Every structure is written in C-alpha cells, then in structure tokens.
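Example 386, ligand pyridoxal-5'-phosphate.
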Amino acid sequence: MKRRQAIALGERPLGQSYKSRSPLPLNPHITSLPPYNAGMNVAVARAISGRDDIARLASNENPDGCSPKVVAALASSLFEPWRYADPACAELRAALGEKLVVDPGLIVVGNGSEEMIAAISRAVLAAGTSVVTTVPSFGLHEIEPLAVGATVVKIPMTPEMGFDLPALEKAISSQPRIVFVSSPWNPVGPGLDHAALRRLVSAVRPGTLFVLDEAYFEFSDPGAPDGVEVLRASGIDYVVLRTFSKAYGLAGLRVGYAVCSGIELATVVAAAKTPFNVNAAAQIAAIAALADASWMKASANGVRAERERVAAALAGLGFRVAPSQTNFIFFDCKGDSASPAAELLRQGIIVKAWRERGYETYLRVTIGSPADNDRLIAELAKLVRR
Ligand SMILES: Cc1ncc(COP(=O)(O)O)c(C=O)c1O
C-alpha cells in the first residue's frame, strides 16, 4: 500500500526504475531514470518520530530563514499575484548583471538552478552524446543528461574525499559534450582551489561545455575562486550556476540562474526553459535578497562557524569527515548509513543517507541551527557508544 502511494505521488523507491504496465509507449529515457534522493517530507518525519520539533538536516536549507527585507517586499504592493511575471526576469537579471559585472544578456534565470541543469541538458545534449561528472554526485547532474538520452561517465572521489584531478582532466579532455562539476561539491563538500579549477579548465577542448555549479559558493572560505570571474577570462564555452536557495534562504521560492559564456548559448538555454518559469513572488524576493547582501553574509558566516564546530565534533566521535566548503558535512559511518539515518529519524532528525552505489556508508547532514546541531551530535554520540 505504502509503495503504491509513493508511486502515485510521482516518487519511486530509491534504486528502482519505474516499471510501466501501460500499453501506451512511454519515453524509455524517462522510465529508466534513477530516482532523485530528495529530503524527507516533514509530515512523514513527524508521523515516524512522534515529535513536532523536527530538525531538517537533509536538504541544505538555510537555518536562519531569509532576509526580513524579502518578507517585507513580498508583503508590499510590489507583489501582484494576478499578473503574469516577467518571462525575461529583466529587473532581476539587471541586478545580477550589476553585482557580477556581467552583461545581463548572458544570464538566464530558472525555477531554481535545477531548471537550468535541465535546460542546459535540453539545449546542448542529444541521444548518443556523453557527459562527465563526479561521483558521488548531485543527482540532477546525472538525471537530466540521461533524460535526454545522453550517457554519463562519473569520476569517483579520491580516498581522501577530494576531487580526482588527473582522472577528471583525462575524462574532460576526451571531449564529452558537457562536464558538470559542482564546486563546492555536493554531496562531498570540498571546493576546487584556483590551481585545480585552472587545471580542469585547461583540459576543456572545443566542443565541450564546462558547467561549474556553484550552488554553495557563498559558504566557501574567503579566497576561494569565484567561477564567474575565473571563467570569464578562460576562452572556453561555460556556464556558471548559482542559486538563491541556499545562502539567501529562498529554497521554497525556486530561483537560480545560469551565467553563460556567450549570447548564443544563453539564448538557446533560455529557449529550453518554460516561458513563465520564475513566478512573480520569486522575482521580487530574489531582487530584495540580492539587495540585502549584509544579511546573507552574516548568515553564511554563522553557518561556516557552525560547520567547523560540527565537523570537529563528528571527527571527535571517530567518523571520517570530508572537508567542507558548504553548509553540510559528508562522513563515513563505516556501515550502511540507512541504519543511523533511520535511528536519527526516530529522534526527529532528518538527514540524508547516501544511496549511490559504493557510497552507501556515507551520511550527509546539513548545518542547522546551533540547537539542532547539538541534537544531531548528541544522538550520533549515543549511536557510537552503543
Ligand atoms: C549542486 C547543486 N546544484 C543545484 C541545486 C539545485 O538548487 P535549486 O534548484 O534549489 O536552485 C542543488 C540543490 O541542492 C545543488 O546541491
């Protein structure tokens, strides 16, 4: 019964592809997709744990919420729900262009950066083309290319839980149509430093699009490379992806964007999205969030400090913890991580047990409020002592 309900909601048990019994021929690229490992719904977590105070540490949301200026803008007369939003997001693109010192014509705004991953895949890939990414990976870097019939080569992390630069260089120089690299890296955590980013960029040959997904850019330590700046001077075809979902705290509104290397690429990526993809509330909120940089910076600083505290505590409990430049921590539980994840859930803490083959012993935990982080550390300590 539970399984049938899950399928009715468009979800599938992890690790299984959808088996159709319909006489209607369905798109085999879609029916064979691996499922996306989304964070658990809070109502389900409440039902399982019997607790109201759920610590949501699975989806890398911002524990501080969002800038109060966002809430004020949404409550103002700027927000007219009865009007269609600007399909070009002109005001937001102008604000982003000014902040990033980029021609707004090179920026495409999406319903979350996830929509841009889909649009880039539709715009650039076709059946039979290939994509390179890392493993463990952000699910959509694999799912969206597979959805359009491409094949995906995944380069594993090193034993030290870092980027395998020689293997990535080799795979990139084999001229895949797209390279998707997230830096800082979801789910592992480290970021490419200047030299490493330059090495990967140098491996890109004509005919390959280099997509640098910087969803967690704002959580990087000072001095980390800024992909928009570095790639501007590179001469390669590229897209830098950023989002308002993480450091700006707008995950529920769905706004992300692509900074493209050229007008033609930006035009084709924009053509591959739906016309009214970013709703009016999201556009108003993103403009207000961008204008309140001091709120975002203070929040990101707080998250960074908590990240170091939680990482040290987990290492102190004996876990092998990956270096992180993000708002989450990835660590090895040395046994199937589904079991500690289930125990944490019984205590009202949602975390993400990694399910990609070869990485099932890893847990990814989002940095939450200090109180939620304390709860996580205390419950993990109990599990370790058992
Ligand atoms: C690396 C990476 N890219 C893109 C996204 C998509 O974010 P959004 O669609 O909320 O902008 C995420 C979300 O978790 C992510 O981790």
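Summary: The pocket of pyridoxal-5'-phosphate is lined by residues 60, 112-114, 138, 182, 186, 213, 215, 243, 245, 251, 256 (CB under 6 Å).
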